[in-house]
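hey m, so remember when u said the tokens were messed up on ur end? i reran from scratch. heres the input so u can diff it against urs
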Amino acid sequence: MSKLVIGILAMAYGTPSSVAEIEPYYTHIRRGRKPEPHQLQELIERYEAIGGLSPLNEITAAQAQGLERTLNELNPDAEYRVYTGMKHAHPFIEETVQKMVQDGITEVVGVVWAPHYSTMSIATYIKSAEEARDKWGGPAQIAYVESWHVQPLFIDSTAKRVEAALAAIPAAERASVPVVFTAHSLPERILQMGDPYPRQIEETGRAVTEQIGHSNWFTGWQSAGRTPEPWLGPDILDVIRDQHEKGVRSIVICPVGFVSDHLEVQYDIDIEAKQLADELGMKLVRVASPNDEPLFLRAVATAVLEQAKKG
């Protein structure tokens, strides 16, 4: 008897795979509006500063392979096939859903490589997948994992990485050092919409710090868009300045809203925030990204299996 085949639509943000793709990539993000020449040049310089290109595509591929392997280990009664669909780069979510239909996949669970739900993030991935499902005539239904921000193994994975970062802080400061949990900022209007995103970031931070017994923690925001409307704050650079004024000498930043090393982590924190901390004479330690760490992948796989049972 053949096993039931379950397709996993693993959705990610995507990143340019060459310098030539930077302009069309950001044009896609900006819904058809090309970046101005000075904006494009600044973007290229940011990529150059982290080594030329973001490692996101390679990490996303490794995460997909690890997730598929982990799912098949955890539940050998079914066969899991992970398909990657990108929001802003090839293969786009629509292309991936089309491939799943062509492969005859009828049972599908969708998951985004982001732990926290927002109408401006996860919901937009789901919308793209649903539009593609309608366009290509299948599968009949996709069961979505909408958030996994307090999944116990995800909390375990994050706690271990936060503890490793704390170990790099001088012993005399370790118990009192501030741990800042950051995520990509979104426009402030999500607050009026009752969006759960800020609350979920806080819930992750609380669960992690309760597990490791660290009381000095709070949330911050990073990588806000450059638009006229206000975005969620405080920005991590303002947090660093504020902590310096309070006499803090060391700070730990955990970019918990991101699950991979990429531009927003490697430039916004490892270069920009680190440079500010250095100028202020502060020690900044960034918590390592989970990338394709086995415990992290087990967390995502468990969330997928739980959704598969419900769906």
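this time it looks ok to me. The two ends are 23 Å apart (CA to CA). if urs says something different then somethings off w ur setup not the seq
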